[in-house]
Amino acid sequence: DKGQHRHFMAKEIHEQPGVVARALGAWISDDRSRITCAAETIDWRAVPRLTLIACGTAFYAAHVAKIWMERVARLPVEIEIASEFRYREPPLPEGGVTLLVSQSGETADTLAALRHAKACGQTTIGLVNVTSSTIAREADMILPLLAGPEIGVASTKAFTAMVLGLQALSVMVARQRGAIDAAREQALVDLLSTAPRLLAETLALEPQFEALAHEIAQAEDAIFLGRGLMYPLALEGALKLKEITYMHAEGYAAGEIKHGPIALVDDTTPIIALAPHDALHDKLASNLREVIGRQGRVALIGDAEAIRDLKGEVWRSVVMPAVDPLIAPLIYAVAVQFIAYHAAVAKGTDVDQPRNLAKSVTVE
Ligand code: M6R
After folding, report:
1. Which residue, 97, 155, 243, 310, has most beta carbons within 10 Å?
2. In which residue ranges of the chain is pLDDT below 50?
3. Which of 124, 128, 137 is nearest to 42 (CA)?
4. Which protein residue's CA is at the shortest distance from atom 10 of ligand 1?
5. Model's pTM, two decimal places?
6. Residues 6 or more apart in contact with residue 207 via CB below 8 angstroms
7. Helices 157-176 and 328-347, interaxial angle, to 10°?
């Protein structure tokens, strides 16, 4: 049932504050001071490395998690797409943990990676939405996403639930490894607890994203840029746009465009920059000025402070809530989802059942 929405994707985008609130309820202790979950039984001080494996959107959630886990828990993390990991036969460290991220829990590549990791003696964790799935059954332990059924082929609420779950896991691992003290853990729990409200505030920006998406839909190609935690969001934005509008889109780390992709810049291709005001802002601004100097049409998605100094130079801008950069991936996910969704509606494509795609990919 789509309720009042035209498409399941729209419904699922709008469900995100509730999904994240429910997931937080499961991750946060009753006294709201700490993160608690099944993976606490692992001695994370003895874990030399965490390997995160997934496909598609789930892989981009893993990419966000790598940055969190390394920054907050100081744990080395490898991320890899499942279809490459399995057949590369990488050496896995003794005592290592491999975490498989999958909405469906049935993705064949991810399942093959799980079996390989198990055969190599890794402790395996499945972060899955469908808890009756094969990955859930075969992993040593599961962390449920609690996102509820996701019907739209383009993953939305599962992505935010994955990011939130992996952020929470990072906090628990950080505590066990002594990387944070109780006060810092409380601060991070409080920060994650702001997510439902911030997601709701971002949902209220839908008309601005709809107007921007209508303009983007006129173009042949689009480029998404971001740095740090916004780099995986740029990749996710490009994937989402490709999947449901069939437009050609690329996502790049903003610092990388000068190494080649800047040759693509002209006055017709929208460059969507994901730019919360963070430590990398000045660097990003200089990357964007290089693009603007070559007639690039920059759509700047950022908070008021990030937009202020570029306002007169960019093609379009949308003002996002000002947030701690650590939590920005959750709300910028909504921004890229809205852009893809409304561009697809403008183009008249089949949003929930895009051509050539299935909800879960059960072949390798
Ligand atoms: O069910 P999974 O999370 O394992 O699926 C992985 C990918 O197939 C999936 O995220 C795909 O990329 C989505 N259609 C993206 O919107």
Report:
1. 155
2. none
3. 124
4. 57
5. 0.97
6. none
7. 170
